[in-house]
Records
---
Amino acid sequence: MAEFSLMRRSRPKRPMVKTSEKENLDLIDRYDIIGTFGSVEILWNRETMETIYSVVEPKLTDYEMLILKTLPKEMQMVIPNKVGYLTDFYGVDIGKVVDDYVKAYEVKLSEESKEKIKYYLKRDFEGLGLIEVIVKDPYVEDISCDGYNIPIFVYHRKYGSIKTNTMFKNAEVLNSYVIKLAQVCGKEVSVAEPILDGSTQEGHRIQAIYGNEISTRGSTFTFRLFRERPFTPVELIKFGTASSEVLTYLWYMVENLNSALIAGVPAVGKTSTLNAILMLVPPNTKIFSIEETREINIMHQNWVATSTRESDYDIEDNDSSGLKIDMFELVKMAMRQRPTYIVVGEVRGREANSLFQAMATGHTTYSTIHADSMEATVNRLESAPLNIPRIMITYLNTVIFNKFVRSGDSVVRRITEVDEMSGFDNESGEVVYNKVFTYDAFRGKHSFTGFSNLYKKVQALKGMTSSQFKEEFDFRNKLLEEMVRSDITDYVQITRIINTYYKDKDRAMLMASGEPV
């Protein structure tokens, strides 16, 4: 039976791409996703000058197609006591179902044909059907279907926004699929209520529109894929998002309880950066996270992870069991639990005021915001619906800016600026801030500007001289660089090394270097 676990990047199994346009297509990359049955090929079309994300699945013969369509309809003979067998195969061994069917009906199928049928049954009944391979691809962040008979687009971590060879070929199939997505999220969509906003059990966020009542091109959907293996500090350095010096600064920032906002436009990697820096939190300290849809994923035992709840309140039934719990209520709850860190997925409403009140009372808070400069960040915080008084903005210690930067022929994500709040100018009424790190896109390099309030704070708290602080800074910086050199990207191992650092620095360095300890 086909293996449905994630496979590592593999070598191309054939030198030529098997498509009708193969003379115009160059194979750039290939890797397996679902065993060897569901694979991905990244192609370059020399005629249209575009990159294509091609899903490669086994082709079925007409006879195999007939068996695949017939088998679910006759499942009652194979599993007579299975309730809902026509739509739900959960808890059933797909391999045994096919084997029993072949035996009971004396169907002539080769082993290869049986494996292909098992693959498609599992894909369609236990997975997400047509886009199952794409959803399981660890390099894909977003999936966008803009209507029927239109190619699905994905955002690939390496190749950016690209078109796929996958599409829903008619409105009926796409409408049925959106209904299935709603059921996966435990919700419903209809012509009367055509908008879906939900998440799967795996944490993938789904937004969809059903039918053509408000979408002129028919049903649409967008996936924001939840990364089960969180983005790590080592990967931020490895992929050039930040330098080791920037990450060392952020390590000190987290350790010394400086509050921060991560700012940037949508899909620029704000939450990935937030996940990465939370891995630098000292062990045993308490984290309380608040999100609308789960995206934060860290290896930390003393962590309370909460999410908002939409209202199911029915006035006529007078049922208050489904009252709405929003981010504002959760921020207030967090303050009562005395966590060391309060983390809000994104500030965009009245919860921002409570978050800044928490900063004012000594809590360390982290969040993200949509803004691309310090001026835009201040304006966004001051404006409705956030309504943060300018004087309160100075309670914030650090603002980290993520931006898209062009590098050669591709667009990459970079931390382009790290700013520290320095105070408030009473005469001009402006927020005063200091740029600590900047990014030179031309040279592809992060640079320290020469001064940091945080570094002065650390030296004062620890009673260090400048040379002593530099020695410790260089050690941490080297620790991160050694993990990059050793290609240690597993978040469990990275967390262990960081935690070991606080107890035995030399042992941590050996672990980071890949040496046996």
---
Amino acid sequence: MSQARISPASWVTEIAELTKPENIVWCDGSQEEWTRLTELLVADKTLIRLNAVARPNSFLARTHPSDVARVEDRTFICSEQEIDAGPTNNWRQPAEMRALLHAKFDGAMRGRTLYVVPFSMGPVGARQARYGIEITDSAFVVLNMHLMTRVTPTVLEKISEGADWVPALHSVGAPRFDAAGVALGEQAWPCNEDKYVVQFPESREIWSFGSGYGGNALLGKKCMSLRIGSALGRDEGWLAEHMLLVRVTSPMGKKYHIAAAFPSACGKTNLAMLNPTIPGWKVETIGDDIAWIAPDEAGRLRAINPEAGFFGVAPGTGMKTNPIAIQTIAANTIFTNVALTDDGDVWWEGLTDEAPEHLTDWLGQDWAPGADTPAAHPNSRFTVSIDQCPIVASDWDSSDGVELDAILFGGRRATNVPLVVEARDWAHGVFMGATISSEQTAAAEGVVGTLRRDPFAMLPFCGYNMGDYWQHWLNIGAGLEATKLPKVFQVNWFRKNAAGKFLWPGFGENSRVIDWVIRRIEGEVAGVDSPIGLLPQLDELNLDGLEIAAGALEELFHIDVNSWRAEARLTEDFFAGFGSHTPSAMDEQLRELERRLGWDPIS
């Protein structure tokens, strides 16, 4: 099946014949639809309506304990050739997977409503927008798609005018009746123990079965925006990236745009909603998770946020860490797997310093401080429209997107990686992105041999061979003038001293790093060369008003040659895993790093 060979109406008919729903509803993204579906789910006990005074028009959902996160081990890239999926993706032969999925979806919606959700990733009509239609039997998914995408019948008009589209099929895999009409029972959170999230890159299809949670079910998010999006970008000459997008305005009133890629738990949302501590600086949010980047007619890279909302991790988010996020979710928000207060509001670890004396935890059980388990699931979430963010850029939804001035890569590293380092050129920047890594656990921090690689923060999301993905980045850069490309930097807010204490305060103080990045863009500071790239001279950083321990600044930028040599050996092993698909330019960058470290790998 391909969007070029079948109309939306014919596809819906085909899927309905397979899944056998009780009803079919074409969604329009309206307020009336929101009200109707929230009332339905409250009546079904899938949603709990929160205190209308404390949290207006907001709801809490509790999932089944088996359905709380992305199912990466059940996520597949079913390209025609296995090598095109690469070693970092799960692969199945497409015909084999189609047969399996057809069997799973056969009758999967008996007794349920089939919702047809036409959605746009990116502003409708924009050059960089792409369209999809999600079929789902989950009203909860429809509500989240309202917040995360642009659900509108206008998408159907664009498709009728000839626009390409992505068919995205989803079912929770929990029919209410069997083939004989016998009732199978119902639960507040329907799902199936057997889960599949499948992308077919060549035909641009998404099939998701068994989960009602997050990116497994909101098929515009990771599935379309990144896995299918990256394949589209490869074929069409642009980039689909797991990146936040912000506008930074200097005290002089000049605007800059920065995209940044960070693996999970590395400060991504906090940077997307940065509250600068340096007077005169202003940060505006454009997106917190995904950026689509394409060359414009002038030969510069422009980016849009294809999403329309935030799907943020709740634990750790509080007034001290991210006051902007707390203001954003004050109303009109869907919370998933957080705790419920006795007065009908929500709570999670990190929201306040002290927990309430009594809560109902994410499993629906009584909870009190000192309990052996957390009140909120560690991956509990909030879904909210980006328009509610108090620092959202007024033109965040512009069809033209924004011109990129800088790209940041970062990971959670207790050692080795300095606070900030600039790439020498585009190819060196791609090398930085390709070698992003984080220490796996707190116990293993500082041990180079336990690095968890997450190139470009895209490891779970790249829809084709990661080595070919690196080459695509190199090709994008080679096709543009070097002076028009964004500068590339690597940052690390998490370096520690020998006692295990963080050397850098992070959060709003990260604006001091952004300040140096922008002054490098303007050529106002020179930096100093090092084996791994350009570092700030210590007096180039604006540290006014910042209390930092003696020697901490020097330690933040210390380059341990022996540790970097060990890391280079690990990188060599990592690259070898992609065989001939590792670009020669990446091998050359590794050889250059080894040379600068004074290590001749041949000797």
